[in-house]
Amino acid sequence: MKSYKFKLFPTEEQEAKLELSLDICRRTYNHLLSELSNGFGKSELSNYLLDLKVCYPEMKHVYSKVLQVETDRLFSNLSGLSASKKNGNKVGRLRFKGKGWKKTFVYNQSGFKILKGNEKNNLLHLSKIGDIKVILHRKLEGITKQIIIKKEVNNWYAIIQTDAIVKLECGDKEIGIDMSPSKFGVRSDGINMEMPKEIDVSLGKLKKAHRKLSRKIKESHNRMKARKLLQKRYWRLNNQKVNFYHQISYKLVKECRVIGIEDLCIKGLMMGYYNAKNFQKSGWSTFINKYLAYKAESAGCQIWQCDRFEPTTQRCSCCGEINPTKLELKDRIFNCPFCGLVLDRDVNASRNIIKYCRLGTNLCGADSSALEKEQESVMKQEKRRLSSEANHFNDW
Ligand SMILES: [Zn+2]
What we know:
Blueprint: E1 2-9, H1 12-36, H2 42-55, H3 64-86, E2 104-108, E3 112-115, E4 122-126, E5 130-134, E6 144-152, E7 155-162, E8 173-179, E9 185-187, E10 192-193, H4 197-215, H5 221-255, E11 256-262, H6 266-272, H7 276-282, H8 284-299, E12 302-306, E13 333-335, E14 342-344, H9 345-362, H10 365-391
Parallel strand pairs: 8-11, 11-12
Antiparallel strand pairs: 1-5, 1-7, 2-6, 3-4, 4-5, 6-7, 8-9, 9-10, 13-14
C-alpha cells in the first residue's frame, strides 16, 4: 500500500461540511463506545448505527460508509489496546473523544472520485461534501483504495491510499551508527547525520509560544490565539522532524545491507542524563521504530542491535583493547594508548558497533542462526507495533 498526501482547498461552504462530518463521526464513535460497554458485538453495533440515524437526522449529512468505518476503528483500537496489554504495558480503557479531538475520517472503497483536470486544477469528489479543489503534485500509482481526510491545525489534507507495492532496494554497505547527544548520529564511515538547523530555530519559536500562552488570562480571546499559535509551532516542528527522519532512513536503507545500532535505554538516559533535552529532541527511538524498521524490512536490509553493555566508547576500534582511562562526555577524541589510534569518539564507537554485529554473525557459526532468529523476532515485534500504531492512525 502506498500513501500520498495532498492539500485540499475547500470553499467556506465545503469546509463547514467537512467540520460537520468530522463532528458527527466523533459523536458516532462516542455513541458506539458507550454501547460497547453494554456488551454489544460488532454486527450488533453496525445495526445500532441504523437506529442512531433515526434518532439523529443530521447523520444523513455524512456518507454512510464513513460512519461504518467508525465501528471498525473502534474495534481496531480495542485490539490495539489488548495487544499493548499483552506486551506488558500498563493500559487504561478507551476514552470518549472530546470536541476537537478527532482529526480524521475515512472514505473506504467508495464515495470518492478523483476528477482530473490539468496538473494544478484537479477536483476530489467526496460524497455528501462536494468537489474540493486539490493539487495532485505527485503521480498516483495503483488503484485508489481509500481516502483519509485529515485536519491539521487549520488546513485540510487528503491522504490517498492505493494498492501499489513499494519496493525499495537496499545497498551493499555495512554501517554502524552511534547515537550522539549533540548530533543526531555518527556513521562508521565518518559521515555525520546532523539534525537540520531549522529544527533548532523551530524549538526556539516553540519555547516563545509556550511562554506567551502562559501569560494570557484563562478563557480569554488572546489565550485562544496564543494556543492556536502554539499548535502551529508544534505542527511545523513535527513536519520538519518527520521530513528529516524519512530522508535519512531512506538514504540509509538505499546504501546499506546491514545497519548496526546501539540498543540504548532512552528512558534511563533521559532520567539520569544532563543531556536529556538533546536525546528528547533527536527522537532516536521514534526514528528506529517508526521510520527505519519498516523501510529496512521492505528492502531486505537488516538491522542489528549491539548489546547495551558492550563498552563501545571505551574500546579501540583498531586493536580491540579497552582504554583504561574513562572517556568523559566532554572528551570528543579517542586516543588509544596501545596502538596510538586517534579518532573522533563517535566514529570509533560506531565502528565498534558494526564490528560487534559482524562478530555475532560471522564467527559464532551456531550462534549466528540464534542471533538471526532473535533479530527476526525483534523485527516481528517491530512490525506488530507498527501495524498497531497504524491502526490508531497516529501517523496521520
Ligand atoms: Zn588501539
